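Support request, please re-run this one:
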Amino acid sequence: MKIIKRKEYLDWLVRWKEQQIIKVVSGVRRCGKSTMFEIYRDYLIQNGVEIAQIIAINFEDIDYEHLTHYRTLYDYIKSLLIPDKMNYIFLDEIQHVEAFEKAVDSLFLKKNCDVYITGSNAYFLSGEFATLISGRYVELKMLPLSFKEFCSGFDKGASKTELLTNYIRIGSFPYTLKFAQHEREAKEYLRDLYNTVLLKDIVKRLKISDVTSLENVAKFIFHNIGSIVSPTKISNTMKSAGKGVDQKTVDKYIKGLCDSLIIYEATRYNIKGKGFLSTQNKYYCVDMALRNLLVRGKDSDIGHILENIVFLELKRRGYDVYVGQFNGAEVDFVAMSSDSTIYYQVAATTLDESVLKRELASLRKIADNYPKYLLTLDEMFGTADYDGIQKVNLVDWLLK
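Re-run finished. Output below.
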């Protein structure tokens, strides 16, 4: 299977190379963190680093099970350090190590240690670790393959429409490219991934006994991507279906799903008041094929599927992404960075005049001068301009 280089992530690692700071790479299981470290280690060797200077441990590998106590791990690494050279230390899936923050912090204090760690959930960066190394780490938040990266794994010749269909059908996890022509195997792989995340990253950590209720909440969120939901709404809906779960428990399950990085929350943002709204947010799934594996009636929901893809792409591009509210109207996304704000509407097609009018309406209400985009699958020559609102082909936008 072709290895996809993922240049933006590699560039990030190279940029922080040998700087006195811990490099943390987080992301959902099997999004490519371990492979990214392999690519980076190859880069180091190609640029003059000796193999003996590299110490790499993956704690998902049972060969390293004896190192899952912080003191044993620290002593083992210390015994391998080359005193007069820089040592590059890679600790993959570090959350398996008891009190790992103590070992990581002690290695960080050594001038000849360049430390890189990964974890498959958000909570490994909470609690003791965050407290102990606050201000001492930078984080790279990895996602599965972008559409552009996904396309690079295929031979040239497929149309943009075929590629997008495949992206939705077999998913964005790097290993699923191996199953591009075998959808059944891809589904089996994704099912295994989903069960692993559910059981290892949520059930085990939160000590959940009612796994069925957790799955029902997960399926409800997957089914309602791009729709405003709340723990109360989920609880009431499930009770009416005879699957009673109280609001507090639903809230706990949602937090577990978000911490596992299998879903992402988009907070609502009041564009006029420039403030955040604390209730009724939206949720998006980390991968469309994974979502579609668990949700019936998936094919009729292309608008929300495209919305989900755009949300993840904006996250990849470094934006904080919110759902916009303006005088009763909704803007799909408000994308913010330290130096820019951009508004986005997403629709499958706006060739119907009434649909075009509706999609433009909320953007037209916003009086500021920030860029505004309408992304659709409509094939056009270049872009269309509606009083400063740029209509752009969504696939072309993804490939930029």
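The mean pLDDT is 91. Residues 40 and 77 are 20 Å apart (CA to CA).
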